[in-house]
Amino acid sequence: MDSSGGEVRISAEEFLAKLKDDGDFDKPRLKIIQKLKENTTFDAIHKEIGNTVTVTGQISDALWGVIRSTDGMKSEINNIVESVYNRLLNENL
């Protein structure tokens, strides 16, 4: 709720702009890219098939696998999202 007792709404656009502008997601984004590059399957798929819809789908699946992994990326991303959301919420109070 804001100071007048109304509910504070944060739009997706406002949230994404804050996430990008503050650079909060730069470090995890680079980690994700590095993990994808370390995956030899990623390189082999790209070399063999090239830039097709199938490759894009496989890369997307690999990306989500990294994001959801238990090696810290999932919790790191959750922490960043919560932090940015809370900052936006406090700005709007």
From TrEMBL:
Origin superkingdom: Eukaryota
Protein name (database record): Uncharacterized protein
Organism: Coptis chinensis
Taxonomic path: Eukaryota, Viridiplantae, Streptophyta, Embryophyta, Tracheophyta
